[in-house]
Design brief:
Belongs to the peptidase S66 family. Keywords: Carboxypeptidase, Hydrolase, Protease, Serine protease. InterPro entries: Carboxypeptidase_A_C_sf (IPR027461), Class_I_gatase-like (IPR029062), LdcA_N (IPR027478), Peptidase_S66_N (IPR040449), Peptidase_S66C (IPR040921), S66_fam (IPR003507). By secondary structure, the protein is of the alpha/beta class. The protein is about 30% helix and about 20% strand. The protein is built from 9 helices and 14 strands. The strands form 2 sheets. An 8-stranded mixed β-sheet has the order 6-14-13-8-9-10-11-7. Helix 8 packs parallel to helix 9.
Length: about 300
């Protein structure tokens, strides 16, 4: 099995550097966003909101027009005075920005100056996949600023520690411990993945790179077991899982009984013959650890070891 190359790692942040907040997906509640921004300020970082972050599209499920959301993201990525780009929330809409981004311009910005971290989760899966495929950069799958963890009072200390470590010490190794292994074994590869529903929605697009030689991170929220089955089946039938090194599952928040979810995962993915670990603390749960995508990792009994 061919292990793909590790993607380029962003520069470490340090106090005083500038984080731009963008909203490529759903509309954001200002009070929740402010709490999330306060977390970054507590790290000693300067925070600014992109011009359209608090916009609301007439359809009410998007944070402004496609062009405005994409423009904010591209401007922040290309601005030499911005040192990191952070997503305000998930929801829906990031995939609609992909055709409005000038990837040539963003690629030039990536190579012309120190590489900046990009952080988001859930609907941002579409952007993580695109950044890996088109810009060949590592990104961070971590809690969004206006979401139900950072956007609420008193997020768990372990969440803050994980995020701070990712931003300030990206080259340091980290270990996520799961609950159990559905399929035992050891695998090495490069991390990819994110929210299952977003991955399945990218089938047939240029942004979804094959999972060959990769450890695939999977999680989702508010999806019934039969819908998880359907999305896994779609990815399997498309050939996307071919050659995957292993499967690392995070939270399946409000998706049904854990035993039922495990049964679906084992039934659909057990035939791949690769290790499958479940219960890792990333995704939509109350504890959302930050995980680099595009990094070298090792999957073994009950754990994902990165770096």
């Amino acid at each position: 099995m061919r292990i793909p190359p590790v993607l380029r790692q962003p520069r470490p942040l340090e106090p005083g550097l500038h984080v731009a907040v963008v909203a490529p997906s759903g509309p954001v509640l200002a009070d929740r966003l402010e709490r999330g921004c306060d977390v970054l300020r507590s790290f000693g970082l300067k925070v600014s909101l992109a011009p359209h972050v608090l916009d609301r599209h007439p359809g009410r499920y998007l944070a402004g027009t496609d062009e405005a959301r994409a423009g904010d993201l591209q401007d922040a990525w290309c601005d030499p005075d911005v040192n990191a780009v952070y997503c305000a929330r998930g929801g829906y809409g990031a995939v609609r920005t992909l055709d409005h981004l000038d990837w040539d311009v963003m690629r030039k910005a990536s190579s012309a100056r120190p590489l900046k971290p990009f952080v988001g989760s859930s609907d941002s899966t579409a952007l993580h996949q695109a950044f890996a495929r088109r810009l060949e950069v590592q990104t961070f799958y971590g809690p969004v600023l206006g979401g139900p963890v950072l956007g609420f009072p008193d997020p768990a200390a372990v969440v803050l520690e994980s995020l701070r470590a990712a931003l300030f010490h990206p080259s340091e190794g980290r270990t996520l411990t799961g609950t159990h292994s559905l399929v035992p074994g050891v695998a090495e590869g490069v991390t990819t993945g994110g929210t299952l529903s977003l991955l399945s929605s990218l089938v047939g697009s240029d942004e979804l790179a094959p999972a060959e030689g990769r450890i695939v991170l999977l999680e989702d929220v508010n999806e019934s077991p039969y819908r998880i089955d359907r999305m896994l089946t779609q990815l399997l039938r498309s050939g996307w899982f071919a050659g995957a090194a292993g499967i690392a599952c995070g939270s399946w928040e409000r998706c049904g009984e854990p035993e039922h979810i495990d049964r679906v995962l084992l039934e659909r993915l057990g035939g791949l013959g690769v290790p499958i670990v479940t219960g890792l603390e990333f995704g939509h749960g109350t504890v959302q650890l930050t995980v680099p995508l595009g990094a070298r990792a090792r999957l073994e009994t009950g754990a994902l070891i990165i770096g």
